[in-house]
């Protein structure tokens, strides 16, 4: 992102509150943050335990809290005032930590002022939240080492950067093999006009969105899994900007992307979820790939490699299927 655009985003979000958005966009954000299915009790409680003033400075377009976070190091890319960071700090526990990265000084200062309140609320001996000011596409400048982070999240922030590829290059560098980025962002079905991108207000509200299909190409380039879609909702701007946006359709999408291990399995596998993740009877890797408890699911080698290398591995059993072609008849005795 050019310096002028960075400064415009900082200024836009520095003193912003959710009520400053248009009615259409506020309705969109509320819909995007409404879970498509019930949230686990621990997640609901963690969100309730975030300070009211921090909640007012939350501008996300999705719910970016994956399961199995105990003891993890989590990085929140574009953390703002820290809503998601403070919620997740309760879920990683005192053996884990959350590092929030943002370029907007005012929001980080606001988060810093509420760290102690959240530490006391969580009854932690010391705060497990750290904020760093900088750019999410330049994590090396903030001291993030290669293969050092378990989980990354981001909530409607990557669309604010000019070169999205630079963000994912850093994600691939910093994540451990098997680590994941679980994030929500705004996407278009076609490129946005230059006129819309030149509008600082529209850019700040998400008009810097990339075309959805570009994400998979970027992931392949940097050794990341295909983007596993978790949910999608319409993303609407105000009616007064239709002329600038033209016929582009926008969506707020939540994805899970896993950093591939160095060595991948071959062939087809049966993966069986044991049902032992708290309150998750059916594990959703993607909206079109779910693992009901104790039910073998046929998956390709790339998927089983990613699951095996991830923190979810201990909740699965894996069995190699001899036949290489997914179109061949399955052995019924593999399922009983």
Please summarize what this structure is.
With 336 residues, this protein is of the alpha/beta class. Helices cover 32% and strands 24% of the residues.
List the helices and strands and how they pair.
Elements: H1 3-14, H2 23-32, H3 41-48, H4 52-55, E1 73-77, H5 83-92, E2 97-102, H6 105-113, H7 115-122, E3 129-133, E4 149-155, H8 164-174, E5 175-188, H9 194-198, H10 200-207, E6 210-211, H11 212-221, E7 228-234, H12 242-245, E8 250-258, E9 268-273, E10 282-286, E11 289-292, E12 297-300, H13 301-309, E13 316-321
Parallel strand pairs: 1-2, 1-4, 2-3, 4-5, 5-6
Antiparallel strand pairs: 5-8, 7-8, 9-12, 9-13, 10-11
Helix pairs in contact: 1-10, 3-5
Report on this structure:
The protein is an alpha/beta fold and 336 residues long. It has 13 helices and 13 strands. The strands form three sheets. Strands 1, 2, 3, 4, 5, 6, 7 and 8 form an eight-stranded mixed sheet that branches. A three-stranded antiparallel sheet has the order 12-9-13. Helix 1 (3-14) packs across helix 10 and helix 3 packs across helix 5.
Rg from Cα: 20 Å
Superfamily (CATH H level) name of the largest domain: Vaccinia Virus protein VP39
**Overall residue-averaged pLDDT value:** 88
Helix count? 13
CATH class of the largest domain: Alpha Beta
- Which architecture of the largest domain would the CATH scheme give at its second level? 3-Layer(aba) Sandwich
Question: Which spans have pLDDT < 50 for at least 5 consecutive residues?
Answer: 326-333
Distance between the termini: 55 Å
Give the % helix: 25-40%
Strand content range: 15-25%
Number of domains: 2
Task: Tell me, briefly, the overall form.
Answer: globular
SSE run: HHHHEHEHHEEHEHHEHEHEEEEEHE
Family: Belongs to the methyltransferase superfamily. Arsenite methyltransferase family.
Domain Methyltransferase: 70-206
InterPro entries: Arsenite_MeTrfase-like, Methyltranfer_dom, SAM-dependent_MTases_sf
Pfam families: Methyltransf_31 (PF13847)
């Amino acid at each position: 992102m050019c310096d002028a655009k960075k400064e415009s985003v900082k200024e836009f979000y520095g003193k912003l509150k959710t009520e400053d958005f248009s009615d259409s966009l506020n309705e969109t954000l509320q819909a995007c943050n409404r879970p498509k299915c019930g949230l686990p009790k621990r997640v609901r409680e963690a969100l309730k335990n975030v300070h009211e003033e921090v909640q007012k400075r939350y501008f996300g377009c999705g719910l970016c809290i994956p399961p199995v976070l105990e003891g993890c190091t989590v990085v929140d890319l574009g953390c703002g005032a820290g809503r998601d960071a403070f919620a997740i700090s309760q879920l990683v526990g005192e053996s884990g930590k959350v590092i929030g990265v943002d370029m907007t000084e005012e929001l980080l200062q606001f988060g810093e002022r509420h760290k102690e309140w959240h530490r006391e609320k969580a009854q932690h001996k010391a705060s497990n939240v750290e904020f760093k000011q900088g750019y999410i596409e330049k994590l090396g400048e903030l001291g993030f080492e290669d293969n050092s982070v378990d989980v990354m999240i981001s909530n409607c922030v990557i669309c604010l950067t000019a070169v999205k590829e630079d963000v994912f290059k850093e994600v691939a560098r910093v994540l451990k093999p098997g680590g994941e980025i679980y994030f929500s962002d705004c996407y278009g079905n076609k490129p946005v006009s230059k006129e819309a991108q030149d509008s600082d207000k529209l850019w700040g509200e998400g008009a810097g969105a990339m075309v959805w299909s570009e994400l998979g190409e970027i992931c392949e380039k940097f050794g990341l899994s295909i983007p596993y879609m978790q949910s999608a909702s319409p993303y609407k701007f105000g009616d007064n900007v239709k002329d600038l946006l033209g016929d582009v359709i926008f969506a707020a999408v939540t994805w899970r992307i896993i950093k591939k291990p160095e060595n991948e399995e071959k062939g087809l596998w049966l993966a069986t979820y044991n049902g032992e993740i708290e309150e998750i009877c059916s594990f959703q890797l993607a909206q079109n790939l779910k693992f009901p408890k104790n039910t073998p699911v046929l998956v390709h080698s790339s998927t089983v490699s990613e699951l095996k290398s991830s923190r979810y591995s201990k909740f699965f059993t894996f069995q190699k299927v001899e036949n290489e072609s997914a179109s061949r008849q399955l052995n019924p005795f593999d399922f009983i």
